[in-house]
Amino acid sequence: MTELTHAQYESSDDELPEEVAFDDSKTAALKSVKDALESAKREKNLLKEKRRKRQLLFQEQKKRKCLPEDLLEEFDALPQKRPKTSDSNKDEDTEDVIKSKTVSKSLQDSYSVVRLKDGSAAKTMQQSAMDFIQSRLYGPGTKRTTNAARLSLQKKRGLNQGAAVEFANKEWGADHKVKAEKSNKRFIQKQKLVPS
Amino acid sequence: MGEFKIHRVRFFDYMPTGIRALAFHPINERMAVARMDGSVEIFHCSDNFFQEKIIPGREQCGIEALSWVGERLFSAGLNGEITEYDLTNQKAKYTVDAYGGPVWAITGNQQGTHLAVGCEDGTVKLFEVNEDKIQFERNLDRQKGRIFSLSWHPSGSKIAAGMMDMIQVFNVETGHSIHRILVDRGVGTSRSKECVVWSVVYLSDGTIISGDSVGMVKMWDDHTGTLIKSHNITKCDVLALSVSQDEDSLVAGTSEGCVVQFQFISVVLDKDDKEWVRTRTFKNHTHDVRAVAEITTAVVSGGMDTQLVVRPLLDKIEVWSSASALRKIHFPHRNLVSCARKAGLMLFQYPSHLELWRLGESEGIDIPGMSLSIKSKPEKRLHLKVKGEEHIRCSAVSPCGEWIAYSTASRLRLYKLNFDNNNVSITKISKLPKVLSSANQLCFSSDSSHLFSSSTMALVHVVSLSQSGCKFVGTLKPKSGSHQAIHLLAASEDGKWFASANSDHEVNVYNLQTRKVHCTVPIYSSAVSAMGIHPTTNCLFMVHADQQMFEYSIEQKQYTDWSRLVHRKGLHRIWWERDTPVTNVMFNPQNTSQVILHDMYMLCIIDQSLPLPGEKTQFYNQLTLKSLPEEQRKSHSHAFKVCKTFKEILCVDLMSDQSLVVVERPLTDITTQLPAPIKQKKFAT
User: Fold this and answer.
1) How far is B102 from chain A (nearest CA, A)?
2) HSE (CB half, 13 Å, CA atoms) of A183?
């Protein structure tokens, strides 16, 4: 009771607290629940749409990847002929062989057909061994520098001191010069130093 | 004296390949050097390190290791094959597949009976060395991981194998592993990278020494399988180890280019407890050192900077002479450039192709010492690629410029060139005589009518060349039984005489009309590095690898008076102290007493009419002679006139229009194309 009077004192209007009917509040509560349900449904639908669209996209891509329809039909037709002939030989071995033949007609993605002449196992092993040495001696983790840098260092600390090799010898610094010119051009264009 | 116009040529892009393996044969004193392109070179260590034999390589060879077993040389590579070399004929004898994947290491036992090979699949395969071939015997226990290095115990009963992160010690008889020694990985960031044991050495007292990729040289005890001592010598990898014959000195080669020596000495004087102590550091390389070998008096090292460095150990040398100086071998001791003297053309021999260039012409007034402006630039007329994987062994162009011949290890090719105006057309001579299958050395006669090719059994085949093709004429056979391959040929101007020099130091002179041996020059202790026949006097002028010179008169079959005078008086000290051999000898047609020679750093004209320099006279006296007045010059000049203007000379030749061609290859141009070196932090940079 004291609280009510307190509220009365605080509010400027001498009003009674609003009468909220039970029905109104009930409807309001139901409405909010409905809204929540509806928004959840909408979200679900949106996700569904997205998923459907994605699925369509993938199917299209797959279609593009596959061979044209008529070729596929041709391939399907051939294996059917073989099982027909196998009916005459009721040997299980030949069936297995034919089954493996049908499997080989459509290779999985990770398999490929290579001639024995082209890439022998020895060569690839040799290549992988050489790559191993290359990565251990020159790969990441090794502190390597360039020949130009080393010669320049020698010149700086040597008996006859001179400028770095990129400056002294025209051939060494050729690509540095080209890079410098390009970046100069870009800078000039950017800053609009040259009135165009 | 003589004035020559000099064409200074720098467009021969000669690129040597890095050294991958070294193997020393202590009895013969030969050092076998394997390069990354598969070529194997044999150097004679006591004959001034002369490059006696070169076995050319092939594409995609991937040679990894060399090993001597008795007198035979074996190599193994990443192509999975073991090759034995025929050193007499300078080629590969046969190859045996190891069937274990790429082969990383090969080593023979001290008894000379077996060869152990370390493969990619983790097996150590033992091969029995028979008289004519090697035969697979058995595998030792297979391990998980590749085997990078192998070393036999001197008794032949145990083998140590260096692998990834560990060393396995095998008992050869049973094939089982006795010890599995784990090698530590590095500290800090390198802890995640595996440690590769690049090389192992097994000593007779049971110590195993290993060099790994962390930069440590570790000494292990094989009885307990534990670490005795570990030395950190570098931040990068230790790539090669080699121990001396009497096992008191060890050298290690690193990626930084340092070679570190360890010696087995007692730390405290007069006490008996010896241990391995790091003594010397040699910094003679700029790139990775991939192979080291310790010979009796020196440390030989080679790596990716393509030079072979011989560093004599001063405590092992009794007499300090020029032989005890540091020696670097850059260029091959053979000629890679041949000149067509009458046509002004030069043929450059690369490993897998040939280039024919025409020299440029100059204009302007000739003033000695001045460089003339170029009227027409030198141009490349022909680029001839070799079919197949083998590298070119030798090549030659005829003096008239119309014939080119080259030979690989298995075949010889001859081409005829036609020059009409500015076009060059080339036709291959397909029907070659059967004897011309492969040649060790090729030479054209001076009138371009005959081709001489030296082949197996020290025979020289003579073939005549004409418009219609080539026809076999005859064979020159030596009298003695030496079958060593011939590495130098020389034909006389008048077409009557022909000389050949082989690796056994024998020089034979043949009479071309009868095609029989005319005479044999007395054998000298050093190999012949260059020779030529004088156009008018028909004297054979020979320069040897130890810088000795001889002049032999062919018609009189004896040494000339000038040659005897040279030996009586002796050559000047500075001449003996040169460390690169003379690779070409030419004669001046305008002045019959002049002989022109060159080595890597100098060009010299020897005037046989002038007196020889004495002990005390100044050798390089060209500048002082210039400053003297005319009358005094004659009295002060001596026979050797040396020009040191040109450096890093690959070849010097005399053209028929009295101009000299000097082909230089600056070493800095070679360094531009080498692989990347390790970064070294220097103070204040």
Assistant:
1) 6
2) 5
Which residues does chain A have within 8 Å of residue B236's beta carbon, measured at their own beta carbons?
142-143
- SS3 at position B630: helix
Q: Between chains, do A126 and B80 touch, taking CB under 8 Å as contact?
A: yes
Asked whether the predicted pLDDT for residue A88 surpasses 50, the reply is no
Beta bridge partners of B678: A144
The Cα–Cα gap between B561 and B552 comes to 9
Per-residue pLDDT, A79: 57
Q: Which residues pair with B302 in a beta bridge?
A: B291, B308
Which has the closest alpha carbon to B411: B426, B443, B382, B389? B389
Tokens 């960031």 label which residue?
A: B189
Interface TM-score (ipTM) > 0.85: yes
Residues B233-266 pLDDT 10s = 999 999 999 999 999 999 999 999 999 999 999 8
Q: Which chain A residues have a beta carbon less than 8 Å from that of B190?
A: 141
Describe the crossing of helices A69-86 and A92-105 by its angle, rounded to 10 degrees.
170
> Which of B165, B672, B681 to mutate to probe the A interface, most A CBs <10 Å?
B672
pLDDT at B540 over 50: yes
- Rounded to 10 degrees, what is the CA torsion of B272, B276, B280, B283? 170
Task: Sheet with B308-312: list strands edge to edge.
Answer: B289-294, B298-303, B308-312, B327-329
Contacts of B242 (CB under 8 A, 6+ apart): B22, B201, B250, B251, B292, B293, B294
Q: Virtual CA dihedral for B643, B645, B648, B651, nearest 10 degrees?
A: -60
> Phi and psi at residue B630, in whole multiples of 5°?
-50, -45
Q: Which residues, listed in sequence order, are joined to residue B540 by a DSSP beta bridge?
A: B533, B552
Residues contacting residue B32 through CB under 8 Å, at least 6 positions apart: B22, B23, B24, B25, B40, B41, B42, B66, B68, B73
Confidence class for position B449, pLDDT limits 50, 70, 90:
very high
Those residues with Cβ within 8 angstroms of residue B260's Cβ, 6 or more apart along the chain or in another chain: B217, B233, B234, B251, B252, B254, B278, B280, B281, B282
Question: Under an 8 A CB cutoff, do A130 and B62 touch?
Answer: yes
User: Nearest residue of B to residue A144 by CA position?
Assistant: B678
User: Is pLDDT of A89 > 70?
Assistant: no
CA dihedral B2, B3, B8, B14 (to 10 degrees): -10
Give the closest of B101, B236, B682 to A142, CB-based: B236
Alpha-carbon distance of B652 to B476, in angstroms, equals 29
CB-hemisphere CA count at 13 Å for B583?
25
Give residue A94's pLDDT band: very low, low, confident or very high (50, 70, 90): very low
Q: Are B99 and B106 in contact (CB under 8 A)?
A: no
Binned at pLDDT 50, 70 and 90, residue A86 comes out as very low
Q: Taking phi first (over 0 means left), then psi (-120 to 50 degrees means alpha), and beta for anything else, what does residue B341 get?
A: alpha
